[in-house]
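A protein record in our archive is deliberately plain, so that people and models can read it alike. The record that follows is passed on verbatim for readers who wish to inspect the format.
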Amino acid sequence: MPVIRFVREQRDVECYPGENLREVALREGIELYGLKGRLGNCGGCGQCITCFVEVVEGGADNALTEQTSVELLKLKRRPQTWRLACQALVQKSVMVLTRPQVGLGDREGELSRARSLPLPEGPTAWPEPPAAPEDGESGASETSPEAAGAPSTTSDEGGVLPADGR
């Protein structure tokens, strides 16, 4: 899987090819936003421009998808290496600096440390789903909880919840 190296946080995170950079960062607890972004971000639509990241030179060429029309419009006065995490899809392993507008104490030292560690290439495709068991092979029971006599409840939306209520 591609690896995203978050330089400020000193963390490497695996993701699937084509995953949204913002979603991966938030899922992994990476802080993308400053105070303004925490108080009022657009939820990934590219309108608030608070999820800036800088693609670190030497990280990987073409590791993220091309800039979207939203990015081209919103980032026209920003450095060429900046991207909106909500608009970028990860294709290959990449190094990024979150919140580049804030600055980094020992920027050059941190960047050279991140560049010195090898960045795994990772596969560039989703893994193949497991093969379905052949007829006659014993596998997991396909009996529903209702058929097995387990009680079920109805959710507020009218659907049926599993017996454990989750």
